[in-house]
Amino acid sequence: xxxxxxxxxxGGTPAxxxxxxxxxxxxxxxxxxIRVITTLEGREKILTGIIEKRGAADxxxxxxxxxxxxxxxxxxxxVGKIKFDENCLYILTTKETGVPSPRDDYKERLTDIxxxxxxxxxxNQICEIVRELTADDSIQIHASIAGGRKTMSLYLMTAxxxxxxxxxxxxxxxxxxxxxxxxxxxxxxPPQAQPILAPDGKPKTKKDGTALTTQDISIYLADIPFIRxxxxxxxxxxxxxxxYAQIVHKAQDNLERFTLIFNLKTSQVKIGKYTIKLTDRxxxxxxxxxxxxxxxxxxxxxxxxxxxxxxxxxAVCRMISRARGKELGYQDFSVLRADALxxxxxxxxxxTNPQRGHDYILSTVKMTIIDAVSTIKKExxxxxxxxxxxxxxxxxxxxxxxPLYGLNLEPGRITFTDNWS
Length: 421
Known about the structure:
Elements: E1 3-9, H1 15-27, E2 33-38, H2 40-48, E3 50-51, E4 54-55, H3 68-75, E5 89-91, H4 116-134, E6 139-144, H5 150-163, E7 169-175, H6 177-180, E8 219-223, H7 234-238, H8 244-255, E9 260-263, E10 268-271, E11 274-277, H9 280-295, H10 310-323, H11 339-342, H12 346-352, H13 358-382, E12 392-393, E13 405-406, E14 414-417
Parallel strand pairs: 1-2, 1-6, 2-5, 6-7, 9-14
Antiparallel strand pairs: 3-4, 7-8, 9-10, 10-11, 12-13
Helix pairs in contact: 4-5, 9-10, 9-13
């Protein structure tokens, strides 16, 4: 199972981190580690709760005695162990690029982000942080764009668009106005109601004069849908980010070119400048999952092998055979005469092999398609094409769960043709 990292941007109001944690707990979503992109002032607020002699230890997250993160863990032990300490902070630096490290000289840290130059450096570093994290297949990223300077949030959102994978998420946490401002000691909703305190330490009241408590505060986690552009250029995934502006320009330049195109007449697949030719079996399987993605079958194109309907096989056969001169359904399709190709569909295999039992037929069909999926992935890799164009198993890291296969591409980036220039 993948580890989940909550990746946040934060400045002088680190409460967004524990608010997001609380909202995820309410959803039953696990967090294994927290990492925060911040400035030198943001670091001080997280560690001590004090910036320029203003604040207190109970406005911090990581003060050993009064830190709100540790208080959250004590209040909600069911969330388990969550890794979060000073070494989990990315403190943006005056360097042009690279991932900030706890070993960096503090003289090189950005105190705040105010100038165009500061913004450029922050953009480069945030992009590199996300690129490096998403290179690790053992982790899932949940990015929170609620904190920090507005530009930090925008850069994190853009970096997620450029590098995030199909199971990475992004959200923005929202709280009631009573806690959004003027309540510096509100960090989450504890199990037992507590008064909301104003900056002067006095309890806040509602319009009717009664005490305002934590139970009166609403915390809402808004999921942010976003377009994933990770597959538009595998070179961007491997190269260190030197310039945010350059990588955005490169992504824009690649966007129209990186489309998955199937030549139904020749069994060729074209992605950007790369072209590969597949066997009839592998090409059919690739086209089938592309068709299922465009048709929105299953869970946005992700489907169990034995749930693929015979009518879907028939539709794919007619697409391919029509491009080759004579439209034929599944049973008459010429490329399906070989035994290996007849093993792709449960109903057809059962009809043509009545002596075989259910378990044997289902196992054979699954293994045939799994073998084709594996071969397609190898052919893409051999051609230097990003694995984001491969058929993937959405349940790969879930034990004892039936595989869900599909393509994680926007339907508009899939094209079927019988000719290309």
